[in-house]
Design goal:
10-stranded antiparallel beta sheet, 15 helices, Tumour Suppressor Smad4, alpha+beta, Vanadium-containing Chloroperoxidase, domain 1, 42% helix, Rossmann fold
Length: 506
């Protein structure tokens, strides 16, 4: 006695008032013919792999696991690729499940044609067109590949196998899979239209300048901050990539002296650490007139990333070819601890941010950088009062004053990237005092790089004078915190620093 296949039962009629479409008959006939060929065909080695792979991709779990594994490598490029893949998957899944499947009604294939050993234990109950698994697979793989060709090549065979598994197990026609994959690819490109990949951005850094080519790191002295969480691994990577370089590891309190000595000994100064360490190295390199080679070794590495440097190999390529750019150096006068001036390669700020940095640095060794940042922001915004100061001769109450070394652009809702590191300008943004500081800071983050409102103001300037600062006022520069009082001037040293930067990839 035989029983009808569950998937051979016609789908329920559409709800009243809803207009639905079906797949054209001619296309359906060709699709069914292809499905029969696939059902009759022997797929060598597929029985042990494809059904398991199809189940693993349910609800996107396979791809979320792949994204987590990529992010765990610690590579910035891998993290961006994982995030882009997940965003593309989310858009594709939402489009297929909330729009397309509700618009096109197609019954699943008849399972009687598929050998029982290949069938899934739990059959899907949604309509067949298009394949959501194929859409998710193609979206994730394409999104990853748009950000990183290497990771895309690693993910693509798995995505193809997931799509093939839907025909192999009998839950989709070939046409369902092809259309689903096309929708997934389209979703990945739609995400790229909203948030550009690094390859779409203008080449970071200008103007180009001459620097000595140092293949294998010959005549290069690299100072590594031992306090960096990845110091040992980064130092080993530098030694492997640049066997002729001299690598010096030292404690944070000895960095300034070690950098000065290294700048005098080599034809170029190398530094491996976070933005605070890079700040010290930039000042030493500018003082002694030698080019700087940056190896990202901190948590954020803003300066290195804006130069297009993400890995040790990026800097090694620049050293081998002698590719370098001129960059500006930000300055505030007077400097910290009685110095004539202080310098910054990324940002300078007053208001709540310095206190946030102080608390984040205190808590991050115990709970990690991002959780510490969130808790510090909550603590600071709960207890602080607006800072009273005079800007360009006018009194102001403000929650935050931010001065960026060059103009910050967007890679999302908040400023995050600089295209030009030698534009001679300060990106000055002020969050005015008042109630609800959290709302005001969020509004400032969502506002454009140039705006004026009761909450937020932004201007491009070459020089900023700040007066009437209370004693012991905290300032933050490149992640470091100092105390000042009285009057302060923030300006630029245009093209004061030469930095190795890898050649732009086509």
């Amino acid at each position: 006695m035989s029983f009808p296949s569950l998937t051979s039962v016609p789908p329920l009629p559409p709800a009243a008032g809803r207009s639905v479409r079906t797949v054209p008959r001619s296309l359906g006939a060709h699709d069914r013919a292809l499905f029969r060929v696939a059902a009759d065909r022997n797929w060598p080695g597929a029985r042990a792999v494809l059904p398991r792979l199809s189940r693993a991709a349910d609800h996107g779990l396979l791809w979320f696991g792949a994204a987590a594994a990529m992010a765990a490598t610690g590579s910035p490029r891998a993290r961006r690729a994982a995030l882009r893949g997940v965003a593309s998957l989310a858009l594709a899944s939402a489009t297929v499940n909330t729009v397309v499947k509700r618009s096109v009604r197609r019954p699943r294939p008849i399972l009687d044609l598929v050998p029982l050993v290949r069938q899934l234990k739990h059959q899907p109950i949604t309509t067949s067109f298009p394949s959501g698994h194929s859409a998710s697979a193609a979206a994730f793989a394409t999104g990853v590949a748009l950000e990183s060709l290497g990771w895309g090549a690693a993910v693509a065979p798995i995505a193809f196998s997931v799509a093939a598994s839907r025909v192999y197990t009998g839950v989709h026609y070939p046409g369902d899979v092809l259309v689903g994959a096309a929708l997934g690819v389209g979703a990945a490109f739609a995400v790229r239209g909203l948030v550009p990949t690094r390859r779409q951005l203008p080449a970071p850094g200008r103007p180009y300048t001459d620097a000595p080519a140092l293949p294998d790191g010959e005549h290069l002295v690299v100072v590594v901050n031992e306090a960096s969480g990845t110091a040992a691994a980064k130092a080993a990577a530098v030694r492997d990539a640049l066997p002729l370089a001299e690598v010096v590891e030292c404690a944070p309190e000895d960095l300034a002296g070690a950098l000065d000595k290294a700048a005098l000994r080599g034809r170029a100064l190398g530094v491996c650490g976070g933005d605070g360490t890079v700040n010290l190295a930039a000042v030493a390199a500018a003082r002694h007139g030698v080019p700087l080679a940056v190896f990202p070794g901190g948590t954020l590495n803003h300066f290195a990333y804006d130069l297009g440097i993400e890995e040790v190999q990026d800097t090694a390529r620049a050293l081998a070819s002698g590719d370098a750019v001129k960059v500006d150096l930000g300055r505030f006068t007077p400097g910290p601890d009685g110095a004539a001036a202080g310098y910054f390669v990324n940002t300078f700020s007053l208001g709540v941010y310095p206190e946030l940095v102080r608390l984040r640095e205190r808590w991050s060794p115990r709970i990690g950088g991002w959780p510490a940042g969130v808790l510090a922001a909550y603590e600071v915004l709960r207890g602080e009062r607006p800072l009273e100061a005079e800007l360009s001769g006018k009194p102001h109450a403000l929650w935050l004053l931010f001065a960026g070394n060059c103009i910050y652009q967007r890679l999302g809702p908040a400023p995050a990237h600089r295209y030009d590191l030698a534009d001679g300008l300060l990106d000055v943004r002020v969050v005015h005092g008042g109630r609800l500081p959290g709302f005001r800071l969020l509004a400032a983050a969502l506002a454009g790089p140039l705006s004026r409102s009761p909450v937020h103001a932004a201007q491009r300037m070459r020089r900023l004078r700040i007066a009437r600062l209370a004693p012991d006022t905290p300032v933050a520069y490149d992640g470091e915190v100092a105390r000042i009082e009285g009057e302060l001037t923030v300006d630029k040293l245009p093209e004061a620093l030469t930095v190795y930067r890898p050649p732009v990839r086509a």
